[in-house]
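Re: that chain you flagged

S.,

Sorry for the slow reply, it's been a week of failed gels. I finally had a moment to sit down with the sequence you sent. For the record, here it is as I used it:
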Amino acid sequence: MEGILHRHPLRLENPLWDYACARYANPELRDLCLHLQETRGADVNLVLAAGWAAQKGHCMETARLHSQVADWRHHIILPIRQCRQSLNKQHCQERRLRNLALKLEIRAEQVELALIFFLLDQEINAAQKAPQGIPEKSQDIITICNQNLLDTLTCEGHAHPVVDGEIERLSFLLITGKLSS
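Prediction finished late last night. Pasting the structure tokens below so you have them in one place:
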């Protein structure tokens, strides 16, 4: 797993991590993210990053982000998750081990979010320096979020089509942080 992880120090505590923790605390958003993860293999960190980037008025370079985090996700996060999920919640010793695996999984996801933050920060800085600059704030953040999410879910090669209502609900939760009614 050569690459950015070995060439650049990553900030584990960063604005994307703070945003992800705050949004993921919303049970409706958490349930929707976990549903997408379980049924479509979605990378929840990239889903959360889609909302954060949209709030910055930024359309993500999703294919690049996905390719940069894929090794970490497939070789570190997913095996830890599989190990955790295979442990019995009911058996006392396995429950303790399962809790340790969960902590390790969250830490691995924090590293992935730090990598995503590093890459998005580069993208946003490059967009600011480009002749066209950053899109104006008047540009619809929900539209940007919808596009970021659609690109993220499509890039991950989901067999099932993404439902527009699902994307819109996810965008609402990511942008507002509120429960939908």
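What I noticed first: The mean pLDDT is 86.

Talk soon,
D.
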